[in-house]
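dude i think i finally got it to work??
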Amino acid sequence: MTASAEREPPNAQKQRGGLSRMWHAFGYSLAGLRAGWGETAFRQEALAAMVMVPAAFWVGQTWVETALLAGSVVWVMVVELLNTGIETAIDRIGPEWHDLSKRAKDMGSAAVLLSLLACVVIWLAALWSRWGVSLHLAP
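look at this
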């Protein structure tokens, strides 16, 4: 270890404990949400969540259904934030094209797609369970 490395102060967050650590971590999380809001996809998903999460309490017939409906919507936003984090880290490394960078970004995008598909299937199943069975089409 070099002398300059020994003199560098450690990450302040690592030195915090208890409520101070929690308070600062909460601030970092809010900063992450603000950064996510700057991304079009996350903003669209958050706006959809403002409608869909309350609707989950209306559509869900049990607390498990309600949790699954609301959770699937929140899960999409979580995956979108992680995907954006991956893309941001890759972009920080450099703007030049690299096969591994493309692969990482593609996998992050695929994760978002899978979370969206899961959300759609969960919502369609719940909607069908609530209203679809009672719909009888006359021949």
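The mean pLDDT is 89.
im so relieved honestly
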